[in-house]
Structures are given as structure tokens and as C-alpha cells.
Amino acid sequence: MHVDLYEKIWMGLAVLMIAAFLGSITYGAFAFASHPPSHVETIDPKLVRTDARFATPGVSTRPDGSVQVVVLAQMFSFQPAEIRVPAHVPVTFRLTSADVIHGFAIVGSNGNTMVVPGYVSQFTTEFARPGDYLIVCNEFCGLGHHVMSGKLIVTEEEAP
Ligand code: CUA
Fold this sequence. Notes:
Immunoglobulin-like; 1 helix; 160 residues; binds dinuclear copper ion; 11 strands
């Protein structure tokens, strides 16, 4: 079988690229412990409304001053639809879905996760800039996907 020199070069480059991509993912996973925000903690999607972790969605302040936001995603809204958090403190978002896969992206920030039924997605971020942020669902979840949005208000004063 004859393999042209250019074919060999391109095959080699493709192998190198795949190795580089896998290498960067592996390096990020182990050196920075980065992993998808979901698939850590499980929850029965049929019982999310009565589960103590999600029975009362909303904002709460922990004893150390950090803020926790519990959000329930469902077709086609977020509960609560309006979230108010203080600037300059760590804010931990905990999310789950009552039905299908949704997305939760805080536009203009690094807050972005999939919301997968059966799992709790969690990420922590801090908002340096007070103001109104749009929250959008960025996973297609059905006919009302395009209207599924929320609002995040980052305030300069202390946590509520
Ligand atoms: Cu929820 Cu798209």
C-alpha cells in the first residue's frame, strides 16, 4: 500500500492534535481539579419539590458570610425567577431540574452550568460588578426554551 508523504504528514498532525487536546483536558482535570459542575450529587427528579435541599429555593447567607443560592429549573422557568446577591462575596449556586436538561448561564459572568435531572449542579463564583444580569437557559429544553430566563441582581450592600 502506498501512502503519500503529505498523507503521512497530515496523519501525524491529526494524531498530535488529538494528543494535545486530550493532554490539555487531562492536565486541567488533575492539575486544577476542574470537572463538570454536575454528576457529583444525585437527587430523585420526581421528588425535588419535597427534598429538603430544594423544597425552598432562594438565597441564604451562611455563617461565614458566603451566600448560597438554591435554584430549581423546570419547563420553562427558574425558581426563583429573580435572585438578589451581594457583590464581592463567594456565591455558591446549587441547581437541579424537575424535568429535562436545562442550562443556567449568567450572561456577562463566568457562571454557567448544565442542569441535569437526577443531579445537583454546583458552582461557586464571585461578582465584582454590581448590576442586573440576565440568566438564560442555554440548553434546548422544549417549545418554551427561548422564554426561559431569569434575573440576577448583584447589590453593593450586605447580603439580605
Ligand atoms: Cu430550559 Cu432551555
